[in-house]
Amino acid sequence: MDFSMEFKYSMPTQIYFGKDVILKNKEVFGKIGSRALIVTGRRSAKENGSYDDVVKALLETGVEYVLFDEVEENPSLETIEKGSNIGKDYNVDFVIGIGGGSPMDAAKAMAVFIKNPQINKNNIFGSGKLNSIPVVAVPTTAGTGSEVTQYSIVTSHQEKTKKNLGQSIFPKVAFIDCKYTYNLPYDITVNTAIDAFTHLVEGYLNTNSTYMSDIYGEKGFELFGYCFKKLVDKDLDPEFRNKVMMASTLAGVQIAQTGTSLPHGMGYPLTYFKGLPHGLANGVLTVEYLKSFKNKTKIERMLRFLGVGSLEELEDILKRLIDVKIDITEEEIYEYSKKLMLNKKKLKNHPQEVELEVLVNIYSNSLLKK
């Protein structure tokens, strides 16, 4: 993977990272707009204090708001239409997404729908380049990095898959405070951390990787060397929460430059058809994906940053954290693989020629009972 010092780099999101950043920088909201649509899931933002902090900041700066709290995991285009209609009715001029990847991605998509009233779930994918109203992102899990990426992953029931909305929607501001993750259950902490780790891996081993993007990947791997030990030991103290949040943010900045690669493309049908959480769907495929590389030079470099001696050692760590048991047939694996072979955009991010057999082997070796 020969890359020179030439690169393109863009990170237009203003990041505030640290304790109590929302209330310490509340004046930022008033500079963005005067009426906000707050987009969340049903419960967690209210339970972890993030929603209260945002509302307090808005009230203290005179910004009006309306709440849409019906975002499901893997948000559908139907939900995005519903939320954006509320935003249009209320005449909002910016959107605040609070939560994990689902509410943040939904907030970005709604910001596009609100700005472009002619857009709906049936024509969004053929619409060409669109602008959005501004988005503020408040992550409450350490995983997706959506607070610093341009991507909005939505569920299309018509196409029976998750896919990128196809628009570039960088949040204008990200408020990143790990205190909102303190009470996350262990399983969600693992699933989301694995998602962040797969972003680092797929962004690093990518045809679009550059000297600049690799800086974020390598720093992220160093942090994960620490985070994996804590996850295995189930020692989720505030220092771990802060470091895994930082690793997730670094991974987001990296994939904003590079995109993701095979495990993400292969993981989407496992989430859509088998109900596997997104992070686990990518993570369960990661070791076999790494084994499929003919040239492992950069993988060895990655392992050194992680402080891991071999691919087998990494496999052992992931096996301790991930236990995926799903019913899947060889026929289904073949169908999912064939469908991904049509996604040329995803395939070109992989630095080797991708053959159908490679995809089938990654799925089979990862998921079929041995």
Helix-strand blueprint:
Layout: E1 14-17, H1 21-24, H2 27-32, E2 35-39, H3 44-47, H4 50-60, E3 64-68, H5 77-89, E4 94-99, H6 101-115, E5 135-139, E6 153-156, E7 161-164, E8 173-176, H7 186-204, H8 211-233, H9 238-258, H10 262-274, H11 278-291, H12 297-306, H13 311-321, H14 330-341, H15 344-347, H16 356-367
Parallel strand pairs: 1-8, 2-3, 2-4, 4-5, 5-8
Antiparallel strand pairs: 6-7
Helix pairs in contact: 5-6, 7-8, 7-9, 7-11, 8-9, 8-12, 10-11, 11-13, 11-16, 14-16
Write up what this structure looks like.
The chain folds into two domains: 14-181, Rossmann fold; 186-367, Up-down Bundle (Dehydroquinate synthase-like, alpha domain), CATH 1.20.1090. The protein is 52% helix and 10% strand. It contains 16 helices and eight strands. It has helices spanning 21-24, 27-32, 44-47, 50-60, 77-89, 101-115, 186-204, 211-233, 238-258, 262-274, 278-291, 297-306, 311-321, 330-341, 344-347, 356-367, and strands at residues 14-17, 35-39, 64-68, 94-99, 135-139, 153-156, 161-164, 173-176. The longest helix is centred in the middle third of the chain and has 23 residues, at 211-233. The model has no long low-confidence stretch (mean pLDDT 96).
